[in-house]
Each structure stands twice: as C-alpha cells, then as structure tokens.
Amino acid sequence: MKNSSVFYKGWLAILCIAGLLETNAYAQTITIPVETAKTAIVLQVAPNKDVNTIYLGKKLSNPGEYGNIPGVYQQGNNYSGMYNSAYTPAGSRNLLEPAIAVTHADGNNSLDLKYVNHSVTRVSDDISLLSIKLKDPVYDFEVTLYYKSYYNEDVIEQWSVIEHHEKGDVVLQKFASANINLNAGSYWLRQYHGDWAKEMRPEETELTHGIKTLDSKLGTRADLFMPSVFMVSLNHPATEDEGSVLFGSLEWSGNFKTDLEIDPQDNLRVISGMNNYASPYQLAAGQAFETPPFVYTFSAEGKGKASRNLQSWARNYKLVDGKGTRMTLLNNWESTNFDFNETKLSELLKDTKKLGVDLFLLDDGWFGNSYPRNSDHAGLGDWQENRKKLPNGIAAIAREAQSNGVKFGIWIEPEMVNPKSDLYAKHPDWVIKQQKREEYYFRNQLVLDLSNAQVQDFVYHIVDSLFIKDPALAYIKWDCNAVIYNAYSVHLHQNQSQFYVEYVRGLYKVLQRIRAKYPNVPMMLCSGGGGRVDYGALQYFTEFWPSDNTDPIERIFIQWEYSYFYPAIASANHVTDWGKQPLKFRVDVAMMGKLGFDIVVDKLSGNDLKFCQDAIPTYNNIKPIIWQGDQYRLSDPRTESVASLMYVNADRSSAVMLNYLVNYRYDEGSKRPILLKGLDSNKKYKIKEINLYPGAKSAINATKVYSGDFLSKVGFNPVVNLDRTSVVLQINVVKE
Ligand code: DGJ
Question: What ligand 1 atom has the least distance to the C-alpha of 477?
Fold first, then answer.
C-alpha cells in the first residue's frame, strides 16, 4: 500500500488531536475515524460516553477536520443517543429499531452501552482492525464492536462480540452485526428477489420513513427468495459511474435480517445481522457470542466502482484461491440427469477429452443401494456408489478419467437425507423435523441436524472418505436443495431457539475441517442454483453456481446482477441446451465468468464441435483478464438492446469486451458506438474479434489503431445485430 505507514502514523496523531481540540468546546469527545483509500466512517464518543456514527462518506483530505463534523449530542434535543448510535441498545433511551436487545439474568430488559476504550491493530499494510469496547453501566454486560478495514479495496467488515458476567444466563433477543448510519436527502434501495431459476431479480425504489426489512427465514438455501445483498444510493439512484452508493451484505449462510429505517430526523439506519426470528439465544456467563461480519463498501463514483471494490476484496481475501486459477469442465447433469452407468460415463470422459476441457464433473445419481438414487425421491444420505450403475466404484471412473488425461470431480449434497434411505432408518434423531407433526418435504428430502457434532462428523467424513478413496479427486460440487421446514433438533433439547444459529455454525465447522485438510481443492457452492451465494459460505469455496436457469438470455441478466457483488472468477457459467440461442451465443455468455459445459458433446454438429474446441483455447487465453481484471459495465441489458461489458487487466494493456443482443425485435442492435472504460487514454489499442464461429468473417477491422482517449470518448461499435447476436472483442495495446 502506498504511503501506508505515513497514513497509519498520521491516523493515530489525528485521534489525539481530535480529542484535544474537542475537549475545549464540548468536553471530552473522542473522534475515531476509520479510513480506507476513498472512504471514511467516523465514530464519535459523546461526553455521556455514547458512541455514535457521525459520518460515512468520502474521506476528507485533512483528517484533522473529522473532529469538526457535528456530533449528535450537539443538537441539544431530547433524543441524544437515539439517532446514529454505533450499536443501538434496546430498552433504555433508544426507541428506534435496536441492534441489540437482551433479557438480563434478573429478567430486566433494559440495556445501555457506554464507551470503555478502543484500540487499533494493524493486521497488514492493507488491513486495520479497530475494536471499541462498550459496557452497560448497570449490568456486567459488554459488547465489542469490530471494524476491519481493507484500505486499498475500500471495504469494511463489521461485527460484534457479546459477553457478560451476570449471575445466570442472559437471553440475546436481537444481536445484529452492524448498525450503520447514513445521512442524505433521500435513499434509493436496490434489493433482490427470486425463486428457483429466477435468481437476482432487482427492484429499485425510494425508501420512505419507517422500516424496510430484507430477510430470510428459510434456514438452509436461505437466499432462495431473497439474498442479503443490497445497494443504497444517496440522494438519487447511482448510475454505473456516478453517485454515492453503499453496497452491503451479511456474511452468513442462514437466516438474516437487514432493517433499513429512515428515522424522524431523516437519517438512514441500516441494521443487519443474523435473523432473530425464533432465535432468542441463551448466553452463559463468560461465553462470547460472535456475530458474522457485515461487509460493505461505499463509492462516490457510482455502482461500477463499488462492485470493483467488492470483487477485488473477494479475490484478495475471501474466496478460496481467489487469485489463482480455475478448471474448465464438462458436467453431466443436463445431459444424463440420473440416468447413467459406467459405459455412459466412459463415453462422457472421452467427450471431456474431445471437447478439450480440464475436468469431468459427475453430478447427482451415483449413490444409494437399498434406495438407489434414480430420481430425487430416494438415496440422499447413503453415500456409497450404486453397484448397478458403477459396479467398479468411483475409483474406476476416476482412473478412467486419468487415462483420458482429464481430471475428475463429483457432486454431493451431504447435509440432506431422503426418508427413503438407510441413513434415515438408522439415525432418525439426526433429522430436522417436528417429532409429533407430519413430515413435510422440499424436493422429497429433509435436512440433517448440523447443530449436532455427530452429524458434523458424518458430513465431514462423507467428503474425507471420497478423497481417501480417490486421492486424485479434483473437484467437489456441494449442493443444498432443501429449506428447513418444521425446525426442531433432538440434539438441542430445551435450547431450540439456538437451532438456526447453531445449524450454520455447524456447517462452517465442517467446512473449516475440510479446508484444514484440503485447503485448495476447488469446490462449487450450489444450492439448487444460487440459493446460498453469500460470503459466509464463499470463504470455503472457489466458485458458485448462479442458477439452474442456463438460458443464455436469462443468464445475461442473472450474471450481470451477481457481478455487482461477486467477481467473475467465482461465477460458474455452463453452456447447456437451455434457450433458443445458437451455441456461439451460449458460449459467449458463459465466458462472462468461469466457462463450463453441460451439453451432449456427441450430438454436436461438426461445426459446433469445432467451435467449442476452438473456444476453449481462446478462453484460456483471455481468462486471466476476465478472472483477475477490473470489470466495467458499458451497456445495460435492462435499458438497452445490447448488453455490453468489459474486463481490463491491471496495467491496462489488454481488455476483453463482451457484447450480447438482448432485444430481438426488428432492426435492434448496437446503433451507436459504445463508450469503453478502464483503458489508458494515452495508450493505443487494436481491437480484434475473437471466438468466431467456423467460417464466419468478422465485421471488425482488426488493423485499425485507436487511442484509449478515443475509445472512452467516441467509443466503438461492436456491430451487434440480428445476424451477429454476440460479439467478443479482444483489445490489445499496440507496442510502439
Ligand atoms: C440442483 C443443482 O442446481 C443442479 O445443478 C443439479 O446438481 C441438481 N441439483 C442435482 O440434483
């Protein structure tokens, strides 16, 4: 990081100066700024020891001025401590939506939190960790707020740790991760909803006074109807390159709740955390309760910059092997479903080789004997190879993959059980269900109780024994298709209200164990599509499955919206037979992220096969730019006929521009040049069309030279029309 040590020293000096300056005017206030490259969040300790957030926005050139930001206590009204609290406690002076609410050991419901101290730990050149300790003046109850700032990425993670030493258990009624405060004339929320095959549908509206809640109570597959990602623009909806906007998301793979409340003074309070629905949590004295991080980034340069912040943070710090590479693959779900045997798989392995991808991924249907997995009605839980389909076991398939020169991966759904399974008969107490009620299924299955350490062990060993049997196993697709109905854990006895929290913690314990032993094995996070795409889970995965909807037109929209929050390297995009578009279009769309295939290679025409075989080396050539480059959205499919985006490498010498026709009405297409972004104005570039279908001639003159300045101001027309529905361009600097 440039000048980081100067920044750090300066930062500490500022803390002292701010404290001193304010002593005269307002008696003992402490100002605590958290700065990243472009953003500052400023906390202030008021004379009464309340900790408030007084600023979140563009960082100031002179950090000494943070102390001049008006604090809430100066307003001289009766509401001190009610607005802008850095972590709003319930039951005392605060009457707005709380971040934390508790019932003390003596049954009292009031909480107040006062500043005790704070400290900053420098984790690396890029990362600082601020912790602020708060304590109730009456009860032996404390909360530590954490702010982990990633300077270069402009990203902050916030969470809290709650502890007490009361005489008896305290019940946590609400336990948010973060309580953020924004101040603007109006607030525009972009939120997402969905269902199976309908992930990431956006809605953008102006927030009104009162509370807007985004939440999930589904337990597992928690994002099925709504993910926790959202954006809030200040004053007017931010565009791609203009406006102030905050992107946020909870790093948690279970029930979440984000309340966006405009208070009577027109501040926006964003309170996000695990959902407290059915979850009052009994906390013993001396036990620490840690909430998951809420991650956010603020951009004063529109949504594009915010998304690049999150993407680079995810690659640098969150995803497994985010800076590494990925394998192209052929999956068999769309082509065979449950219907395959050794002979068919042997052909598919040859197809994998013929296609030229790195790996064959065997999907659902390979296991179960008493109850063979021939449909989604049976077998989940019995993770032994089906003897009829695979008489020589997985090891034989893996060996055959090896002799074809391709790698082998496998699908599992280890958290689940079908009532038609040996596991269900043997361990009914491991199954989440209401003992006295009729069972109710989602995709004919139930969820295993991961709050139970024995179940965690079982799930861990499913994965571990796959690797023990086949050490060359190179890839796991981890699916999770059911939500939790009739939530009840035999294991938790009287502590049922801890269930939703302990389930996810149990899942993470398993994933941590897997990662401790197999740190780098690529794993795809799937949940019947994108039912579990969140950074809590993604810290254990290399990629995610955005949706079972692989119709390429749909995928443009789905992948577009995911890309605001997640980097291209994490988005597993497979070419299938869904949709009406030609193969070239489908491949071009999958190239927006990590390319894969799920097609019947055998049925491809000569030209289609040749096109795919050529597309893979083409993709291999450009994938470093797509995976590690900066992404710029150029033309929005929701408002234009053509969707267009580009990726630019770090030194701006190479870029890839992807263009797709999304409106198929008469004479639609790219009528005007599209303005390119991210290039160096002073450099000269040539533009070449790549990934052409066999026999096709490009409409683009690849010898012409353009300056970056020209391309960003006048633009370039990729010539997308009804005859050229998708166009991939490689932009390379001209060496002088
Ligand atoms: C749902 C996944 O999203 C699909 O890709 C496939 O793996 C099926 N499950 C298998 O049951």
Answer: 7
